[in-house]
Specification:
With 145 residues, the chain is mainly alpha-helical. The chain contains six helices and no strands.
Length: 145
């Protein structure tokens, strides 16, 4: 079968973007925890923490509302337009099945996303992001020493 190459390339780019978002959500939490334990200031930058919290909030909301991720929908549409085979279900479910040969009902993924989201919120509370007020206090304490 011949594929329509521009659509196939765009689908692959969307897949790469989707993977980057997943890596940001999972890796971001790892960096926040490790970074705070090692006193890395950048992991508490407000923009980084808000982006991370927003990303997992979208994932959890999509799961609870049973909404297919727009990146998954776009990738599937591009693959269909290219003439390639498309997969059913969501991005994470598909790749877990492909990589780990693991199948589970949708509620398992909703629960997993929700628990991960709660872990992000708990991390936010345990290691709050830097505010201008906190940053100024830290600067002044360092200046006094």
């Amino acid at each position: 079968m011949r594929y329509n190459l521009p659509y196939q390339l765009l689908a692959d780019l969307v897949l790469a973007l989707h993977f980057a978002v997943v890596a940001f959500v999972v890796g971001g939490l790892v960096f926040i925890i490790i970074g705070n334990l090692n006193k890395w200031r950048w992991v508490n930058a407000l923009w980084f923490r808000l982006a991370h919290l927003g990303a997992i909030a979208v994932v959890v909301a999509e799961a609870w509302l049973e909404i297919t991720c727009p990146l998954t929908s776009l990738e599937m549409w591009l693959r269909a337009e290219s003439g390639a085979t498309i997969y059913r279900g969501g991005f994470i479910e598909h790749w877990f099945q492909r990589v780990l040969y693991y199948e589970a009902p949708p509620w398992v993924f909703v629960l997993g996303y929700s628990l991960f989201g709660l872990l992000v919120v708990a991390t936010w509370l345990r290691f709050p992001p830097a505010s201008k007020h906190r940053s100024l206090n830290a600067y002044q304490k360092g200046k006094e020493q």
